[in-house]
Amino acid sequence: MEEEDEFYQRLKQVPLPQLIKWWTGEEVPEWGGTIVRVRIAGALRSTPEGIAFLKSRTESEDQIERSHAFTSATGRETCDEEWMNKLVAYYHEADSFDAKLAEGVRQTALRCFVQAKRFPIPRNEVESIMNSATASGESRRAAFLYLTSSFPDEAPFLLRAGLASESREIQATAITEAGFLGFVELEDEIRGMPDGDDWFIANSIQIACEMFDYHKLIREQENICTESSEK
Predict the structure, then answer these.
(1) Exposed, middle or buried: residue 212 (CB in 10 Å: 0-12, 13-18, 19+)?
(2) Which among 8, 225, 187 is positioned nearest to 174, based on CA atoms?
(3) Radius of gyration for the chain, computed over Cα atoms and rounded to the nearest angstrom
(4) Is 55 helix (H, G, I), strand (E, B) or coil?
(5) Residue 139 in contact with residue 131, Cβ under 8 Å?
(6) pLDDT in tens, 88-121
(7) Is 181:145 a contact under the CB 8 Å cutoff?
(8) C-alpha distances out from residue 173 to 104, 131, 158, Å
(9) Is 2's pLDDT higher than 60?
(10) φ and ψ at residue 106, rounded to 5 degrees
(11) CA-to-CA distance for 121 and 1, rounded, in angstroms?
(12) pLDDT of res. 1
């Protein structure tokens, strides 16, 4: 983790023109490979000029690049009303695409809404994606994350239901989200879950357990600080 943090800090020192070249596929370094856009997104987003570049690439004719650009440019700090309207328009663009491309567009848009913590799509519409028999696992996962993020008061209920989902993507997401959010009421259930030799589920359980342990440590440290201040 420290190595990754150091790597991204170094990336922020790279001049913008070089980052743009890497984004457009020129002089891509060996460490970038096919995921270079993902790896340099944080560095581009760290400056107003970089954000402006990312937002401009959402007009690309390359739908994969558009998806990367929307995802990379979207955050709570970058999502003003103009950008929000653009995201909503992007989501509805899916209606004019073939089924496979439309699914990818909606998936990207839902992830962006979660990143921005803005939730303009009606619940029943998102639930229909999550419960669709024809939707991909990743689309159902994106819809599930949107629901748990947009209805925080219902999150424990939604996550518990997710643990029993027949979709491994939803189940895995419910497991990790419960851990990240520190829902201790689901801890015993998750620790006792069989993984069925599914590496995806097993890895999600491991991550969740590590996060439960982390939250427990934080609570213990807070209690120590509280007791010390009361003496």
Answers:
(1) buried
(2) 187
(3) 20
(4) helix
(5) no
(6) 999 999 999 999 999 999 999 999 999 999 999 9
(7) no
(8) 18, 15, 11
(9) no
(10) -65, -40
(11) 35
(12) 52
What DSSP line would sit under 193-223, residue for residue? ---TT-HHHHHHHHHHHHHHHHHHHHHHHHH
Name the nearest CA neighbour of 107 among 123, 86, 84, 130. Answer: 130
DSSP state of 59: G
The C-alpha atoms of residue 44 and residue 53 are separated, in whole angstroms, by 8
Strand (E) or helix (H) holding 13: none
| Structure tokens given for 14 | 């790279």
**Alpha helices by DSSP H, the chain:** 2-11, 16-23, 36-45, 48-56, 63-73, 81-93, 99-116, 123-130, 137-150, 155-163, 168-181, 187-191, 199-230
Identify the DSSP state of 32.
T
Question: What's the token pair of residue 191?
Answer: 């620790």
Q: Which residue has the tokens 């969740």?
A: 208
Chain position carrying tokens 């004719």: 61
In whole angstroms, what is the distance from residue 55 CA to residue 82 CA?
11
Rounded distance between C-alpha atoms, residue 8 and residue 117, angstroms: 24
pTM beyond 0.70, yes or no: yes
Q: How many other C-beta atoms can be found within 10 angstroms of the C-beta atom of residue 222?
A: 10
Task: Give yes or no for a contact between 112 and 149, defined as CB atoms under 8 angstroms apart.
Answer: no
* pLDDT digits 0-9 by tens, 132-163: 989 999 999 999 999 999 999 999 999 999 99
